[in-house]
Design a protein that fits this description.
Order of helices and strands: HHHHHHHHHHHHHHHHHHHH
Number of helices: 20
Oligomer: single chain
Largest sheet: none
Shape: elongated
Number of strands: 0
Strand content: under 5%
């Protein structure tokens, strides 16, 4: 038992160190958290004073819309408001045909949800279509609960009001208090669709999987007459991502966040709410919980979604749907919301792991293939035929692109551990080999970055032409070896060329009695390339 405890202790310490890094304070994080607190508090005051229903929706939208800078928040807010408005209008039009006819309304829910998820994957403005499909599907899912069409229209229009004013409030707060980004805006993508929109069957399969999971949850909680767990439907729509590992990780964040938010709501209803008599006390409670959720939600993508779910579970458990005037005191609502979220995570995990699974391993392999091709181009810089002053401008965009690709690869490597093991084809690369290849590529990039720096290029200029030619030939051989890192029919020839080029450079260096940081790094790079793949 002592040995087991000693083995577990480093893992626990490593996890705590990771959590400490993810929750580390920064000036930007403090400002963004204060914006979220102010937004949630203002929603409580506005909805309570003006008697706007769906307070939980308004308060959560502050967290959902607020992004890392005011420019992105404004863009998301405008697109979100457009999507919400179109979604509400389409839902009202559908109800003219489907109200009182579940045989039409339920298929229309599934069709709209499928289209929204499909367009989310294939359109450049996919999040807009996601929001539009979600709004239509969720408003259609409550049709059988409302006794009259007049009340249904009133509820749906109030939902639009609750969403719209919260979005506008969030955009204004971010414009007022969040600094504008200093860099130039990213160039707008060319075209309306992603490059493989009509050739990749994974887009259709993704939409079918999300629709299947969401509709299964809908039929389940409708069949057992437990609408309190309708958050299962919402969960299926929101956690669907491109791979099974990414979906499960987002589901785990949602589950952890909802448990924390649910416990905070349970404690508030049980202990604090009975002693609250004024709006000020409710504002203080919301501010405190928003501070916790906001601090987590403004972290990196590894934990940010958990912060949003703390806010989601707390607001939806504390505030009743169409009664904005006081917090809810029914503990069964807390139980239902949390159970629904956990049930949705389980359903989505099963569907994404078992039906047409998209693996993080496959994504990592594709990312590595592209990154290694760019790395091979970087290794060709500088060359004896190219002036040294032109080398740095050519190398910098390549370095930035490779670093970005390898960071995405590192993320996919983390997600691989969450996926179930799948029988591997004879000629495919194992997960362990891919991770080793990723580490090797990162080390080669670090060495190549130094070679393209001012210090490295200065040493290059001081080398005799004979040594420059030998080094350039070796870097070309390293580039070919990098390109053939995966199992390839040309890998053996690349290894032979690498050995010959390294022997030639070694002989040249010894004969000319050369030394320096560039030569030592070239030797390290050669060793890394030999072990790559």
């Amino acid at each position: 038992m002592r040995a087991h405890f000693q083995d577990a202790q480093p893992a626990l310490i490593g996890w705590l160190d990771w959590l400490r890094r993810e929750l580390a304070p920064s000036h930007e994080r403090k400002v963004r958290t204060l914006i979220l607190i102010c937004g949630a508090v203002l929603c409580v005051i506005i909805s309570t004073v003006l008697q706007v229903p769906e307070l939980a929706v308004s308060a959560y939208m502050v967290f959902f819309i607020s992004k890392e800078n005011s420019r992105i928040t404004t863009m998301v807010g405008v697109l979100g408001l457009i999507g919400i408005t179109i979604g509400i209008a389409v839902s009202l039009l559908l109800y003219q045909l489907t109200y009182g006819h579940p045989e039409w309304r339920i298929p229309s829910m599934a069709i709209v949800l499928f289209l929204g998820m499909y367009l989310f994957r294939v359109l450049v403005l996919g999040p807009l279509m996601f929001l539009l499909g979600f709004v239509i599907a969720i408003t259609q899912s409550v049709g059988e609960l409302v006794p009259s069409p007049e009340l249904l229209v009133r509820i749906i229009l109030w939902i639009w009001v609750a969403l719209a004013y919260a979005v506008a409030l969030t955009v204004v707060l971010n414009l007022l208090f969040l600094p504008k980004p200093t860099g130039p805006p990213k160039p707008l993508p060319k075209g309306l669709f992603v490059p493989d929109a009509f050739t990749n069957p994974a887009h259709v399969r993704f939409a079918l999987k999300v629709t299947l999971a969401a509709m299964f949850c809908y039929f389940f909680y409708t069949g057992v007459d437990w609408f309190g767990i309708h958050t299962a439907f919402i969960t299926c729509v929101f956690i669907g991502l491109e791979t099974a590992g990414a979906t499960l990780y987002k589901g785990l964040l949602r589950a952890i966040g909802c448990c924390i938010g649910g416990l905070l709501a349970f404690f508030s209803i049980l202990v604090l709410i009975p002693h609250m008599e004024t709006l000020a006390s409710l504002v203080i409670l919301v501010a405190c919980v928003s501070a916790i959720a906001g601090w987590v939600g403004t972290g990196s993508e590894r934990i940010a979604y958990a912060g949003l779910q703390i806010a989601f579970a707390f607001f939806y458990s504390l505030f009743p749907g169409f009664q904005p005037y006081a917090p809810d005191t029914d503990l069964t609502n807390v139980r239902g919301r949390v159970v629904g979220i956990l049930f949705g995570v389980v359903v989505m995990t099963f569907v994404f792991q078992c039906i047409w699974p998209e693996r993080a391993r496959d994504r990592l392999r594709d990312i590595l293939r592209q990154a290694l091709a760019q790395l091979a181009r970087l290794l060709a810089i500088p060359s004896p035929a190219t002036p040294a002053n032109e080398a740095r401008p050519k190398a910098e965009p390549l370095i930035a692109g490779i670093a970005s690709a390898l960071e995405k690869g590192r993320r996919q490597a983390e997600l691989m551990s969450l996926e179930t093991n799948e029988p591997r084809l004879r000629d495919s690369i194992s997960s362990g080999a891919l991770e080793a290849m990723l580490l090797g590529a990162e080390r080669i990039l670090a060495l190549a970055t130094w070679l393209a720096s001012d210090s490295g290029l200065q040493e290059w200029q001081q080398m005799p032409l004979e040594a420059q030619a030998a080094e350039s030939a070796l870097r070309d051989a390293i580039a070919r070896r990098v390109e053939h890192a995966a199992p390839h029919e040309g890998a053996r020839d690349a290894d032979a060329n690498l050995s010959q080029a390294f022997a030639r450079l070694t002989e040249t260096i010894q004969r000319l009695s050369l030394e320096g940081g560039r030569i030592s790094r070239i030797s390290q790079m050669t060793a890394e390339a030999r072990h790559l793949g």
